[in-house]
Amino acid sequence: MDKVIDLRSDTVTKPTLEMRDAMKNAVVGDDILRDDITVIRLEELAAEVLGKEDAIFTVSGTMSNEIAVMIYTRPGDEIIVFSDSHIYNLETGALAAISGVQVRPIESDSGIYDTKLLKEAIMPEGVQRPRTSLICLENSFHLNRGLAVKRSDYEETVKVAQEKNIPLFMDGARIFNSAVALNVDVKDLLDCCDSVSFCLSKGLAAPIGSILAGKKDFIYEARRVKQRLGGGWRQAGVIAAPSIIALTKMVKRLPEDHENAERIRIGLEEMGITVDRGGVMTNIVNADLSPLGLDAPSIAGRLSQLDIKVKVCSESTLRLVTHNDISQQDVAFVLENMGEIVSRNHKKTGLSP
After folding, report:
1. b/e string for 34-50 if b means 16 or more Cβ within 10 A?
2. pLDDT tens for each residue of 217-247
3. Cα 154 to Cα 169: distance, rounded to the nearest angstrom
4. Whole-model pTM?
5. Are 169 and 194 in contact (CB under 8 A)?
6. What domains are defined for the chain?
7. Is the Cα dihedral 284, 290, 294, 298 positive or negative?
8. Mean pLDDT score of the chain, rounded to an integer?
């Protein structure tokens, strides 16, 4: 096969021809001076789509997340997160290094806080205790699982946050995947949150960028914090232009990614491989090879020799993420070769499939 099939992440997507044309023809200005009309159009569109008052275009989901935390907290505060969340595990300790906050992680297998644990995690007032100043959500939940969380599942968390007057921030890097999987308008997943971020460069296939959205005064402060972090754009319209296409056109094709992910799940299950079925699934396939006694790093290595790239999550698990650059034919090729690898392993070990 001439093509490399890259299933490590949906961040590997290449901008479409339409996006490249939009970049070439974009009308630009100086965004820091607020006269890049393409950026302004993107931000207004994003705010409308998300059901928020205003929005800001940033370089990455990590930057959006960290800006939000910096606004809601003061050094020495504490925030509540999921123990498996991206903001806690994969942002190089920025919560402590940049915002000076400490983290109280809560375990969850579903992306929903246990109400009792959440209440216990909120610090009571006292001179010896940090102030709990933010509760973070994530949808889709868990970067290696991609679970879509229903709005109704947040109801108890919302009540606790309101009772304690603590803002809710949504890391919605793949929120559109969740909305499509749940067959709801994305606004309906976000009306409970004070602010939200999402990535344009994941399932939506833009080359770079993220959106942070919330109330107007929140976004006004976000512009100041973004500048402080060195994130001020100049002629950013060349990047905003493909992001507008991502938001207006690429959301509509996300069902294809979910269908391809389901094809992979079914195909792997037929080989005897266990896949995650722990909720409403999106474009992320988590495959457990342990029932077959297979070693994930070695299987990933064999696939790589066939120009198939997957992510190793542990000694026994792999992650495969579908996206705009993965076709049904690619899925068939992956399953065919995975099947051959499994079959050869059975013959070698004498185990039955």
Report:
1. eebebbbbbbebbbebb
2. 999 999 999 999 999 999 999 999 999 999 9
3. 12
4. 0.96
5. yes
6. 5-10+253-349 (3.90.1150.10), 15-251 (3.40.640.10)
7. positive
8. 96
